[in-house]
Specification:
The protein has one domain (33-174). It is mainly alpha-helical. The chain has helices at 26-32, 44-60, 68-94, 104-113, 121-137, 142-145, 150-174. The protein is built from seven helices and no strands. The longest helix has 27 residues, at 68-94. Helix 2 packs antiparallel against helix 5. The termini are far apart.
Length: 179
């Protein structure tokens, strides 16, 4: 039996995305779900982080390594600046505080992890593990950032997780532990 809402319309709960998502502007839905990656189950945040790692690795093949840090910063900032209003709009449409299918925050946090980090397979794997770990555990004060209003709370806790992971990555690189 297909579930129906109070007016008798069929509810589409495919991939856990509420039907209210269709009320969000298309640009917000595309950004917030990272072009639909947020709909992949299980673990949409992990899929978004893994996709970001893969896309970042591919991008680093196309530009001069001297530009890598600047490009990472620009992309992370874009993900935050565009992601906050997108997450807000999609959160409103879904009537959820922090919808699991909103994954632009994982994209931003994962990119922050790779600022000034060489794109080697070891650094990419470690950066992925560190970011996901901090994002899941949410050490202080990340849990408090999560409580901020709307898209700001959705995105900033992952920015914080990315900063924690970045700090760990820089320590590992400083001491040459990835050689």
């Amino acid at each position: 039996m297909t579930p129906k809402n109070s007016v008798g319309n069929t509810l589409d709960r495919s991939a856990g995305v509420p039907p209210a998502l269709s009320r969000a502007p298309r640009w917000a839905t595309l950004v917030a779900t990272f072009i639909g990656i947020g709909r992949i189950r299980p673990g949409p945040g992990t899929w978004a982080s893994a996709s970001t790692v893969l896309l970042w690795w591919l991008l680093t093949r196309w530009f001069n390594p001297g530009w890598q840090t600047a490009i990472t910063c620009v992309l992370a900032c874009l993900a935050v600046v565009i992601g906050i209003p997108a997450a807000t709009r999609v959160g409103w449409a879904a009537a959820l505080k922090d919808p699991q299918f909103v994954v632009i925050d994982e994209v931003a946090g994962q990119l922050i992890t790779f600022i000034a980090v060489p794109a080697t397979w070891k650094s990419l794997v470690l950066g992925f593990i560190l970011f996901r770990g901090f994002d899941i555990v949410k050490p202080p004060p990340l849990r408090h950032l999560e409580k901020l209003r709307e898209g700001v709370g959705i995105v900033l806790d992952d920015v914080g997780a990315g900063l924690y992971a970045l700090a760990c990555m820089q320590i590992v690189l400083h001491f040459g532990l990835l050689k």
